[in-house]
């Protein structure tokens, strides 16, 4: 008599983490958290980071830390975030709330990795230039450390996106971004995979030959990407190829398409490149006006595969 087949345990998705720094942008963050949690079937955890009090000179020399002051500040922040979660319409009082002590970028990245989060939701300030700068730079600094995808949102995000644009360089990172965007679209909507081809102002005969070869390689790569995404019946997936600077071209295409979600992958080839300011992801996040997902390469992906050419990978290096 044969026994029952073994039951394979279902692995629950990691939490959706919300990096909350107070009331000004809480509505957009909590709206995005609600949408993402429903799409990913994940729980929501709200986290705020308390930066340590600067060291003060101690009597008799040296420097003195004030752990009791930091403990008090953490309690006050925890109370504030709990209040926000209890009163904001898009939040849920059942969400867990936590305050960690440390530098925000490193602490948020560490917590996200330790909890194996599915997604980190962060804000992009929109109230004034200073708020915009501080919000975006914190998000960018966190992106340099984190292995979890980040979704950056502004105020007013409250419903599932219907029109997504994905920057596609056919790397594992861009496929990861596309899959996540597809999940957020749910069972209806439209997603366009956009590849930005290099543009040269003074093309030579050699360049034209290379460009024709490049173009011939795109169709099968697009077909393979669409097949792997396996979009549900109600979601239309199409493709587009444009020329120009990747960041500017993507932003312009998303605007013309009236997209409400932009997604792209980011490559990390070394320590120096993680610190570079002039990356595609950096320029997109600094200028985007819609919710934007940036997905690092999956840990097990290794080198980016399937890119049309070395030149294309260099042009898209994020």
Keyphrases for this structure?
318 residues, alpha/beta, Rossmann fold, 10-stranded mixed β-sheet, two-stranded antiparallel sheet, 10 helices, disordered C terminus
Summarize the structure.
This protein has about 325 residues and is an alpha/beta fold.
Descriptive overview:
The protein is α/β, with parallel strands linked by helices and 318 residues long. 41% of the residues lie in helices and 20% in strands. It has 10 helices and 12 strands. The strands form 2 sheets. It has a 10-stranded mixed sheet, sandwiched between helices. A hairpin with a 5-residue loop joins strand 3 (56-57) and strand 4 (63-64). Helix 3 packs across helix 4 and helix 7 (246-256) packs parallel to helix 9 (280-287).
Layout of strands and helices, then pairs:
Blueprint lengths: L15 E4 L6 H15 L3 E7 L5 E2 L5 E2 L2 H21 L8 E6 L2 H11 L4 E5 L5 H15 L6 E4 L9 E5 L4 H14 L3 E9 L7 H25 L5 E9 L2 H11 L4 E6 L4 H5 L4 H8 L3 E6 L13 H6 L3
Parallel strand pairs: 1-2, 1-6, 2-5, 6-7, 8-9, 8-11, 9-10, 11-12
Antiparallel strand pairs: 3-4, 7-12
Helix pairs in contact: 3-4, 7-9
Spatial arrangement of strands, main beta sheet: 5-2-1-6-7-12-11-8-9-10
What proportion of the residues form beta strands (DSSP E)?
15-25%
Tell me what the CATH architecture of the largest domain is.
Answer: 3-Layer(aba) Sandwich
Class of the largest domain in CATH?
A: Alpha Beta
Count of discrete alpha- or pi-helical segments spanning 4 or more residues:
10
DSSP strand count:
12
* Shape type: globular
What is the gyration radius calculated from CA atoms? 22 Å
Number of separate domains: 2
Distance between the termini: 58 Å
CATH superfamily of the largest domain: HUPs
Uncertain parts = 271-278, 300-318
CATH topology of the largest domain: Rossmann fold
Largest sheet: 10 strands, mixed
Q: Which structural class should the secondary elements be placed in?
A: alpha/beta
Order of helices and strands: EHEEEHEHEHEEHEHEHEHHEH
What's the average pLDDT? 83
Fraction of residues in H or I helices = 40-55%
């Amino acid at each position: 008599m044969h026994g029952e087949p073994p039951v394979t345990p279902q692995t629950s998705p990691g939490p959706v983490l919300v990096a909350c720094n107070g009331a000004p942008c809480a509505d957009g963050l909590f709206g995005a958290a609600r949408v993402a949690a429903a799409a990913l079937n994940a729980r929501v955890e709200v986290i705020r980071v308390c930066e340590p009090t600067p060291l003060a000179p101690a009597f008799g020399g040296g420097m003195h830390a004030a752990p009791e002051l930091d403990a008090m500040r953490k309690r006050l922040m925890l109370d504030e975030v709990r209040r926000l979660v209890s009163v904001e319409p898009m939040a849920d009082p059942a969400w867990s709330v936590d305050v960690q002590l440390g530098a925000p970028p490193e602490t948020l990245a560490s917590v996200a990795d330790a909890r194996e989060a599915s997604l980190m939701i962060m804000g992009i300030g929109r109230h004034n230039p200073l708020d915009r700068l501080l919000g975006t730079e914190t998000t960018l600094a966190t992106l340099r450390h984190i292995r979890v995808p980040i979704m950056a949102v502004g105020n007013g995000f409250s419903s599932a996106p219907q029109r997504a644009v994905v920057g596609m360089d056919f790397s594992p990172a861009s496929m990861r971004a596309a899959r996540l965007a597809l999940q957020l679209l749910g069972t209806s909507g439209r997603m366009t995979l956009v590849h930005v081809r290099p543009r040269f102002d003074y093309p030579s005969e050699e360049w034209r030959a290379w460009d024709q070869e490049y173009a011939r390689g795109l169709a099968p790569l697009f077909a393979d990407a669409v097949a792997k995404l396996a979009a549900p019946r109600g979601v239309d997936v199409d493709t587009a190829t444009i020329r120009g600077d990747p960041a500017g071209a993507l932003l312009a295409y998303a605007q013309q398409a009236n997209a409400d979600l932009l997604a792209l992958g980011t490559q990390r080839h070394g320590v120096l490149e993680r610190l570079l300011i002039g990356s595609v992801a950096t320029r997109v996040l600094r200028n985007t006006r819609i919710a934007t997902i940036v997905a690092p390469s999956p840990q097990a992906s290794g080198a980016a595969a399937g890119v049309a050419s070395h030149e294309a990978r260099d042009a898209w290096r994020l």
